[in-house]
């Protein structure tokens, strides 16, 4: 069976017939209407209809699916909750989409070993909920944690507000069960802190589903901190706020979260949730410290005095957990708040060294003026992860295009100052061309060599993550001819 | 301090062309680790020096041959440290070798491994190309995580030339506590305490004594100490250095030393044998002549793996055996970086 034969209905039905030997009829979705919810992830600019959607319920079924796809050389795209923001779970129109939503069991919580064993479709937050009775939790908390699944977190090496102190997914996963591209079941890592041989946890986490399909995960659980407080401070300049961020770190304090919002984002968030933010501030810092109560109090005093020293125009410390939640509410609502003041927004994701915050925000402001599009800046200041929200109106011809082009300029800027084109959203399809800004041909070729080693037939999530050498040539010729990007 | 990256690159290219096997060495402090390997010595110790250190970024970039001692001295001035508390082995250990061996000390379960702190590397692959992966920022998900893949790869994927690591502030206060108990009770106790939000940064058992270390802000350590002090006596802080540097009596002599990496709460077995438990029970050392297969099945029972860490026969396999599917993946991965098979061939497993 070749690709052209599969694109017609006959091919599709023949393929469905082969899967019927492996799965129940209700696990195979063939008709267009039922497939519709799977045609994109949370970046709906990119859409494609897969030949079939398959909904396995066991590791063995995933294995059987991959084995058949390997035999037939049919592309396989795995999908979790579909909350990704880089079109990493975009279906392949010549392939099958495998939804892991029904592999959603928490198999075991071992409070003594501080490990939870879960299936990939388990929601991130559900792990912490299951561990709560033991006073434990799962630390990485991407903003989508209510909905996103742990399998997707592994694909994207997700982070969140707390990763400055507690790390990314890669720091909080001990082991995995993986179905390889050839349909072998592999146990990677384990219940100990390391295993001999190459560290495949490191390789698979963040590999965007290109190297294998995760069917089980052992995550680390941590004791819930006794106490947490947030210091909220307004500044009259972004530069002062940026310096204050560096001062906290240099003082030997690792906050649990350290977030910054610019004036535009403060206004939008305050209009939306009334969190008590200082409306006149040009920049807002939210700095959370957690741990033992004495330690928290010691650090809060220190942070308050540092913020004032670096020119804070206002400074408040949360008195209780309710107020702490209120302070965070505005930050967490920053994206929907932007949606309220603009018909559409495009959320970018890039990282920069902390000390470049002021300079980068100034350059983003210039780009904003140059393109005539407003930008609201919200970011994880502690780890240099920016989320500029480019506001536009898709109904105005050319605005989406301009927003995308402006986004690309911001990513290139991130690389120029020593950062990365993506901090936590992945490359997917969205950022393929910007990989050229960060990696040269030899580095990209090494990525391809890794892919070929683990997926020689190239069936897993093809066309994502790493641009092909041909795509690189195309992108370069477009740039050389002075043409517009994309 | 020197930059010999261009020479290293040329040597690798020549070796790739002629199929000459290379044995990568910097300080040679961990040459006992892994299997015996033949090959021309590729000395990277001349490639040293700290390239970038920004205290407010908590990030340091150094050439791979830079010694940990040099790095520690530089960091101490700013009150910072490498989080993973690596052995310095008489000042010979380098940052590249430490990453290649993923060599972390007692703080590892709480502050993370070398892998966890690694943000970026520059390495020369088996085609003689100098490549950069990762970077200087904590969050970076572009491309595969080749930097962290180097942790524990023992130089079999390439010659690292630069390493960027994340740092932590040196804790303001520390306290070491000790109490007599047997190993089984110590395992239970270490796991019980690790479940609670105490500021623990090390937990180990040897010679009938459980040692705990508390670290953090002044008030945090004082508060935690108050909570558990009734049960413990004050202990000697130097115990952690001796465990880290493997300089205790336990580690001396040429009897085979076995390392178990297991579930921290798995039960204590073979209680009459000489054990040292570290990492809150997750890393267990055993001295003696044992049948490897027997220890492998014991390690599996404990939810982990075993390796022949030091001494014994280094010509056979020394690391926990891998199932065929895993071996296949590891062989192919090796080949993707080192197609001509020149780097530390066989150091980890036969052919890898």
Automatic annotation (TrEMBL), chain A:
UniProt xrefs under PROSITE patterns: FAD_PCMH (PS51387)
One protein family per Pfam: FAD-oxidase_C
Key words, A-Z: FAD, Flavoprotein, Oxidoreductase
Database matches in SUPFAM superfamilies: FAD-binding/transporter-associated domain-like (SSF56176), FAD-linked oxidases, C-terminal domain (SSF55103)
Co-factor(s): FAD
InterPro entries reported in the protein's UniProt record: FAD-bd_oxidored_4_C, FAD-bd_PCMH, FAD-bd_PCMH-like_sf, FAD-bd_PCMH_sub2, FAD-linked_Oxase-like_C, FAD-linked_OxidoTrans_Type4, Oxid_FAD_bind_N, Vanillyl_alc_oxidase_C-sub2
Single GO molecular function: oxidoreductase activity
Domain FAD-binding PCMH-type residues, every copy: 46-224
Protein name: Glycolate oxidase subunit GlcD
Upper taxonomic lineage: Bacteria, Pseudomonadati, Pseudomonadota, Gammaproteobacteria, Woeseiales
From TrEMBL, chain B:
UniProt keyword annotation of Cytoplasm present: no
Limits of the FAD-binding PCMH-type domain: 1-170
Cited InterPro entries: FAD-bd_PCMH, FAD-bd_PCMH-like_sf, FAD-bd_PCMH_sub2, FAD-linked_Oxase-like_C, Oxid_FAD_bind_N
Pfam family, one: FAD_binding_4
A GO molecular-function annotation: catalytic activity
Keywords, comma-separated and alphabetical: FAD, Flavoprotein
Tagged with keyword Transmembrane helix: no
Cited PANTHER family: D-LACTATE DEHYDROGENASE (PTHR11748), GLYCOLATE OXIDASE SUBUNIT GLCE (PTHR11748:SF103)
Protein name: Glycolate oxidase subunit GlcE
Organism: Woeseia oceani
């Amino acid at each position: 069976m070749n690709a052209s034969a599969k694109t017609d209905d006959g091919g599709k039905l023949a393929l469905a017939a082969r899967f019927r030997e492996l799965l129940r009829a209700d696990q195979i979705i063939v008709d267009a209407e039922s497939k519709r919810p799977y045609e994109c992830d949370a970046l709906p600019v990119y859409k494609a209809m897969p030949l079939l959607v398959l909904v396995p319920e066991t590791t063995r079924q995933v294995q059987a699916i991959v084995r058949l796809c390997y035999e037939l050389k049919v592309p396989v795209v795995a999908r979790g909750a579909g909350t990704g923001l880089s079109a990493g779970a975009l279906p392949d129109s010549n392939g099958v989409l495998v939804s892991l939503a029904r592999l959603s069991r928490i198999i075991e919580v071992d409070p003594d070993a501080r490990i939870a064993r879960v299936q990939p479709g388990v929601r991130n937050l559900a792990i912490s909920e299951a561990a709560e009775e033991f006073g434990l939790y799962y630390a990485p908390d991407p903003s989508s944690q209510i909905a996103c699944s742990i399998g997707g977190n592994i694909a994207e090496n997700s982070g969140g507000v707390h990763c400055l102190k507690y790390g990314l997914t890669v720091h909080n996963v001990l082991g995995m069960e993986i179905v390889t591209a050839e349909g072998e079941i592999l146990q990677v890592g384990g219940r100990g802190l390391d295993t001999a041989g190459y560290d495949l946890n490191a390789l698979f986490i963040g590999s965007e589903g290109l190297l294998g399909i995760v069917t089980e995960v052992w995550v680390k659980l941590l004791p819930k901190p006794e106490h947490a407080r947030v210091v909220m401070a307004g500044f009259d300049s972004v530069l002062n706020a940026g310096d204050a961020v560096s001062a906290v770190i240099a003082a030997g304090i690792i906050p649990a979260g350290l977030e910054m919002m610019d004036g535009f984002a403060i206004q939008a968030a305050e209009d939306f949730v009334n969190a008590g933010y200082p409306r006149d501030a040009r920049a807002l810092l939210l700095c959370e410290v957690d741990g033992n109560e004495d330690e928290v109090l010691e650090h809060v005093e220190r942070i308050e005095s540092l913020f004032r020293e670096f020119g804070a125009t206002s400074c408040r410390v949360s008195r209780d957990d309710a107020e702490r939640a209120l302070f965070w509410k505005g930050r967490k609502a920053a994206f929907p708040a932007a949606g309220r003041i603009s018909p559409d927004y495009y959320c970018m994701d890039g990282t920069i060294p902390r000390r470049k915050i002021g300079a980068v925000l100034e350059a983003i402001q210039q780009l904003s003026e140059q393109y005539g599009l407003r930008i609201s800046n919200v970011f994880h200041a502690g780890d240099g992860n920016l989320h500029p929200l480019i506001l536009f109106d898709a109904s105005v011809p050319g605005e989406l295009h301009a927003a995308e082009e402006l986004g690309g300029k911001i990513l290139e800027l991130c690389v120029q100052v020593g950062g990365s084109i993506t901090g936590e959203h992945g490359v997917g399809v969205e950022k393929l061309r910007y990989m050229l800004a960060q990696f040269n041909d030899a580095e990209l070729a090494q990525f391809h060599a890794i892919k070929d080693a683990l997926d020689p037939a190239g069936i897993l999530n093809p066309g994502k993550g790493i641009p092909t050498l041909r795509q690189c040539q195309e992108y370069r010729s477009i740039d050389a001819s002075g043409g517009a990007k994309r | 301090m020197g930059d010999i990256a261009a020479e290293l690159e040329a040597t690798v290219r020549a070796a790739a062309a002629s199929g000459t096997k290379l044995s990568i060495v910097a300080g040679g402090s961990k040459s006992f680790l892994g299997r015996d390997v033949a090959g021309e010595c590729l000395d990277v110790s001349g490639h040293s020096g700290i390239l970038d250190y920004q205290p407010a970024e908590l990030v340091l970039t150094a050439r791979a041959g830079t010694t940990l001692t040099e790095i520690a001295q530089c960091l101490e001035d700013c009150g910072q440290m490498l989080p993973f508390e690596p052995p310095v082995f008489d000042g010979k250990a380098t940052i590249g070798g430490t990453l290649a061996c993923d060599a972390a000390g007692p703080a590892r379960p709480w502050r993370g491994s070398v892998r966890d702190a690694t943000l970026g590397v520059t390495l020369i692959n088996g085609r003689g190309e100098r490549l950069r992966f990762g970077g200087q920022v904590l969050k970076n998900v572009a491309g595969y995580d080749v930097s962290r893949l180097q942790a524990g790869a023992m130089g079999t994927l390439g010659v690292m030339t630069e390493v960027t690591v994340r740092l932590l502030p040196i804790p303001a206060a520390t306290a070491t506590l000790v109490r007599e108990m047997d190993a089984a009770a110590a395992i239970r106790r270490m796991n019980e305490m690790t479940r609670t939000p105490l500021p623990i940064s090390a937990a180990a058992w040897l010679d009938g004594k459980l040692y705990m270390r508390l670290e953090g802000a002044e008030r945090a350590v004082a508060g935690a100490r108050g909570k558990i002090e009734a049960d413990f006596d004050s202990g000697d802080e130097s115990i952690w250095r001796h465990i880290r540097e493997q300089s205790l009596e336990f580690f001396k002599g040429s009897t085979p030393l076995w390392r178990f990496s297991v579930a921290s709460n798995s039960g204590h077995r073979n209680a009459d044998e000489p054990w040292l438990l570290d990492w809150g029970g997750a890393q267990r050392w055993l001295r003696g002549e044992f049948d490897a297969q027997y220890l492998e099945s014991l390690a599996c029972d404990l939810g982990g793996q075993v390796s022949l860490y030091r001494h014994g026969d280094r010509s056979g396999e020394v690391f926990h055996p891998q199932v065929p599917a895993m071996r296949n993946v590891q062989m192919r991965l090796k080949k993707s970086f080192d197609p001509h098979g020149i780097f530390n061939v066989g150091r980890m497993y036969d052919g890898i």
